[in-house]
Amino acid sequence: ILGGYAHWAPFTLVIKGIEGLLVGLFASSEKPWGVRTFFCLLGGLEMVGGYFLVETFLYGRGAALAELPGNFLQAIAGVVIAPLFTYLVSRVEGVITHRT
User: Fold this and answer.
1) Is residue 47 part of a domain?
2) N or C: which end of the chain has fewer CB within 10 A?
3) Is the per-residue pLDDT at 32 higher than 90?
4) pLDDT at 99 > cutoff 60
5) Per residue, what are the HEC states of the chain?
6) Which residues neighbour 83 within 8 Å (Cβ) at sequence distance 6 or greater?
7) Is residue 7 in a domain?
8) pTM, whole model, 2 decimals?
9) By residue range, what is the domain housing residue 43?
């Protein structure tokens, strides 16, 4: 917020909230790997699309297109890192995993 990006807070809340909802509801650990991966990818695409729409509204289509590679990189990193992190945390003694 101090860095001059406070105007992004409400948009990020909605975009990341929907992304988390998609992944959290549909990518549970009981589902097959392919299903979990699909919904992680879907959540990432929702994030990329959401930021693209907001950036188009705020800055114009050219600026939004310029931001696409960075947003795709963020989505891909999430798809790769989240399952690894989830696996590692689930192996820590005393951690109770959520079961749907």
Assistant:
1) yes
2) N
3) no
4) no
5) CCCCCHHHHHHHHHHHHHHHHHHHHHCCCCCCHHHHHHHHHHHHHHHHHHHHHHHHHHHCHHHHHHHHHHHHHHHHHHHHHHHHHHHHHHCCCCCCCCCC
6) 36, 37, 40
7) no
8) 0.81
9) 27-90
Nearest to 44 by CA among 87, 65, 68, 74: 74
Q: Exposure of 40 by Cβ count < 10 A (0-12 exposed, 13-18 middle, 19+ buried)?
A: buried
Q: Which two tokens stand for residue 3?
A: 């860095």
Residue 63 in any domain: the answer is yes
Residue 71 in domain? yes
Q: What is the mean pLDDT of the chain?
A: 87
- Six-digit token string for 13: 């809340």
The answer to whether the CB of 41 falls within 8 A of the CB of 54 is no
| 55, 72 contact by CB (below 8 A) | no
Q: Report the number of distinct structural domains present in the chain.
A: 1
